Amino acid sequence: MDSHKEGKKLNPVKEGFTHIGERRGSIEKLMKEAILLLAHGTPDVLGEMAEYLSKVTAGRPMPSAVIEELQHRYAEIGLRNDPLPEGPPLTRWTLRQAELLAAQTGRPVYVGMRNWHPFIADTVARMKADGITHARVLCLAPQNSRTSTGLYRRALDAAVDGAFTYDFIAGWADEPLLIQAFAEKLGPVWTAVTAERSRLAGGYTKTVPILFTAHSVPCRTIRPATAQQAAEGSGVAPGAPAPADGLQNYGASDQGDPYPIECKQTAAAVAAALAPLDVQESDWFFAFQSQGIAGAPWLGPTVQDTLKALGDSGYEGVIIQPIGFLCDHVEILYDIDLDFKKIAAENGLGLWRAESLNDSPTLINALEHVLTSSSPE
Q: CATH classification of 176-353, choosing from 3.40.50.150, 3.30.1960.10, 3.40.50.1400, 3.40.930.10?
């Protein structure tokens, strides 16, 4: 039992301190433990796009048309040829989350990005220089995937190279406080839009559905159950058709990549949290967004196809909440706020979006709870 929590004074002998110097030394050792948050990274200026994309694709060159298109998208959300004073949205909000987490936990909190500054390797070097001996590591992508969590861990392993020990938390898609944080942002939008649509219709109107989204990943990164696994009881044979709900079936979450399963589980949990607001099972849908614009097929269904289907079904609007992202960045500020809004209008739909979590106090509580209570991988 922690004597501080009980309001008692430390007994140096009982706590293993023979004199005040040893107590101070133990506290200094304790402070060499840190938290490390890992994220994707984003370029600081438009001219860095080609180099940035080469890191995202592990050196595979991108066609000039792809680079120019992405420069256009980033320019639409404010990126320029000169650095922004506050930094690009993803970097700014991630560093803010780290700052708030440090203030709340009293621990040093570091941020490492896989594809841009501050790079994971540079952050680890700083941690070594600071004398960090142990870290609790959390990927800021709640749903576990080889394309995020797995790649970040490999980069971390290479950078640490035994310099300090760490506990790596692989996924936290079902963290109750994360679900609460999303529900807190979505609930007011659902209530306001539903009330306004009813008022304009003079009473009953067709429900405005919720469309939950998460970032797509290349299909080749998702491994279906093998024939042997199917024979052993997984019930999923290679090449099995997608189930009626539109989410491809990749077997149990401990087989292959759990990402698509965990994404939909998070969405279902957020919807369930809004049951007191009369959100029904039939009121929400799920789609993957931001498929790559070059290369092999990416996981679907796409938001574009889903918006068309909703319009064809007679809906007049849709509320989007991206449950795979913790803060504003190009996939939200451009893909949803600009591109999807335009596509929605073309299909006769109004489009509303729940605010991103960004500096949500409940999100910071979620990060703290995951870091202090989750078992490492």
A: 3.40.50.1400
